[in-house]
Amino acid sequence: MQTPTLHLNLGGDAEKNRNWSLIDQFITKVINRSGQIIAGDLEVTGNLTVDGTSTLTGATQATTFQTQTLTATGLAHLEGGLLVDGTGGITLPAGSIDGSALAGGAAVQCWASGTAHTYNSGDMRITHTPATALQLATVTVPTNESTLGLELVIGQLTYEVFCPNSTSILPTFWLQRGSTPLNSRAFTYAAGTTVSIPVTDFPLTLVWLSQPTDTTRLYGLYMQSAGGAGSTAWCDALFAQVHCVQLR
After folding, report:
1. What DSSP designation does 23 have?
2. CATH fold of the domain at 110-247
3. How many CB atoms lie within 10 A of CB 111?
4. 247 and 149 in contact (C-beta within 8 Å)?
5. How many whole angstroms separate alpha carbon 227 and alpha carbon 10?
6. pLDDT tens digit string along 192-245?
7. How far apart are CA 185 and CA 6, in angstroms?
């Protein structure tokens, strides 16, 4: 015969059997007691099965951790990265990035390239006098654009500058969505009293990465003069094009 919980072997000594039975009963009560606290360390060399809810208030370290459902109500810090297998998908808070963008082999949501504009010298020219901004190129994003996806906007430009002696010009270039400027680059070209800046071409690429916050769907590339000196200095746009790619 054996005790029911510890499976202790019972022999022919009734007194010893009674003591083993008392120990077995005590251990059974401890195991079944609700809210039992183990003050020391608990080491399990085999498997540990928890049928109810397990609440861990301290740090948890595990070489391999498998669970049917994991809910993190606070901050979940994953130092080794996150690998998601299966087809369950990823659900993120409303207003953040679409969870499908994190799936393996996620496709591009949409893309578009605006018309490539080639201008002759003097067609798109600014001088040292600040004036209305010139729109050099635009691109319209397709109607399936999502406000949850990251959008990469690229503006390509080639311009040329000429500054005779003792003149200067300050051209500024920027990308814009609708009527909202996104980013800009400003340059200063100034000729000396005895040395001019001959007609020189310069390439420029402007890049912007963000989530769209409106439904405008129109990006533009612009140029404007921020000032200078002398009436004969100028800056011409020769080539301009805008591209947009949105990731899922």
Report:
1. H
2. Jelly Rolls (2.60.120)
3. 15
4. yes
5. 103
6. 999 999 999 999 999 999 888 888 899 999 999 999 998 899 999 999 999 999
7. 78
